[in-house]
Amino acid sequence: MSSNKGFVRELNKNEIDEIIMQRARAEELSDARTEAMKKGIEKGIEKGQTQATLAVVQKVLIKRLKLSPESVLPRLNALSAKQLEALLDAAFDFESPADFESWLKKNG
Asked: In 3D, which of 99, 103, 95, 50 has the Cα closest to residue 77?
């Protein structure tokens, strides 16, 4: 009878260990999922900010320098977020399309 109790205890211990491992794996998955969601949200926010900067730069160049959207957009799409921000700062000082061209040659 005592060997049966030992067997039952060992069986229960193995079941408990398995449950603990399953919960630990589930917690790791949950943590990984949460981290992935955070990164996805951060990337989405960053992309949204870049798109907003792109739209503003495009509008400034079109209105201030009388450039066509077709001539500006492909060139702006080739720029990084930092370059777009720098261009936005510079664009307020542009007086002609040549200023835009010069900026692109130096910074694009």
From this structure: 50
